[in-house]
Amino acid sequence: MAGLLVAGATSDAGKSVVTTGLCRAFARRGVAVAPFKAQNMSNNSMVCHGPDGRPAEIGRAQWVQALAARVVPEPAMNPVLLKPGGDRRSHVVLMGHPAGEVAAADFASGRRHLADAAHRAFDDLAGRHEVVVAEGAGSPAEINLRASDYVNMGLARHAALPAVVVGDIDRGGVFAALYGTVGLLGAADQALVAGFVVNRFRGDRGLLGPGLDALERLTGRRVFGVLPWAPGLWLDSEDALDLSGRRSADEGARRVVVVRLPRISNFTDVDALGLEPGLDVVFASQPRDLADADLLVLPGTRATLADLAWLRARGLDRAVVEHARGGKPLLGICGGYQMLGRRVTDPHGVEGPAGADVAGLGLLDAHTEFAAAKTLRLSAGTALGAPASGYEIHHGRVTRGSGGEDFLGGVRAGNVFGTLWHGALEGDELRSAFLAETLGRAPSGVGFGAARERRIELIADLVEEHLDVGALLSLARRGAPAGLPVLAPGGAG
User: Fold this and answer.
1) Residues 397 and 461 in one domain
2) What are 80's strand-pairing partners?
3) At residue 449, does pLDDT exceed 90?
4) Mind telling me which CDD domains this protein's record contains (predicted)?
5) Is 23 a catalytic residue?
6) In terms of domains, do 220 and 306 share one?
7) pTM
């Protein structure tokens, strides 16, 4: 099987960026390439179609990586998606569809069926593509979890994949992290680690030379390149590690405030607003931070009832209601829309205790009842006189009352908008119409799809310039070189 594992010395080291860049760089060379991540833990997901034509759910990052590879996204690219529903349990999406829950205690055991499914999916992709670029999760040196690992070195061992380890030099300690990652692995795992990529370097590249030389000498493995710090570089995010927002340089920018819910999901819904000139998009979790919002967004959540209780505990519910009753525009998306209704009920215990019946914020005439079956749908229609499209991922069944008017599969009541559609603001015509209606803005001419493609191309350009792409492609095709030295202690795997 031809492929490459892009592992990381830490979480958020840049694995997704390197994987995306390599997918596009290989595709530029005419290689039939596909992305893969055996297990993703993220509440940011996307709807695609499975081989049977049914809608299926995968991690947002793998969906974007498929675009980079110039192939159609499919469930096999992210066979296991874990969606955190709390601190100790995650909802499992297996090959695009709900498959129960997994507890934190199950991470060391009880996941054999997930590993088997992930390996089958990889084998399937590898049988249909020349090269598969697999992104790891976290760090391969999580030695407490090595026995049950199937996304890092467990995957590499299954498919005899060579691995490169990405280290983020901006965090500090990158040489220790890269050396230590290899050194903590068992001999059989070390035999597959072919080298390193250093990410997010700022300054004089020459100053890095002695450290890179020493790393290569001490490990017997090469450094395939150093990616520079690129402040304008961002992709559809995988998780909520960095919700920094997008700030405008324009004086007098209008302020878009997104409520930072504890279990926020699909916060990429506001990425398109962040590209609009004259808009500051910020995430906030204090009532005082909502006071000067020109547009308020209540985003999706993986736990509507729990996050609604959190809103009330912090007084954010009152701040949201005051914003709306002051005549300012308010947009609720999916779980945020459900919170804006009159009631939220959970008779079967889908999200919380069975029989839960909680008052919503009462700004929209709608009632949500959770059902065990999940709705996955690609949706299209019109709103505000513009064509619109999006995707739905929800357990909540929303029943509208007689008040309000249709809006993107939801309801609008004056300045309050609610929709179950994720991704609708990525549509340029719909976004322009919505901003004209809510903030009185003229169309900016910003094209979100074109902007995403430019970001992918920029990442690929950086990879082409600063990494040895030819060597990495050869590595993917030929496997790890023989005779790589074993570093002590070599204790796991």
Assistant:
1) no
2) 39, 94
3) yes
4) CobQ_N, GATase1_CobQ
5) no
6) no
7) 0.92
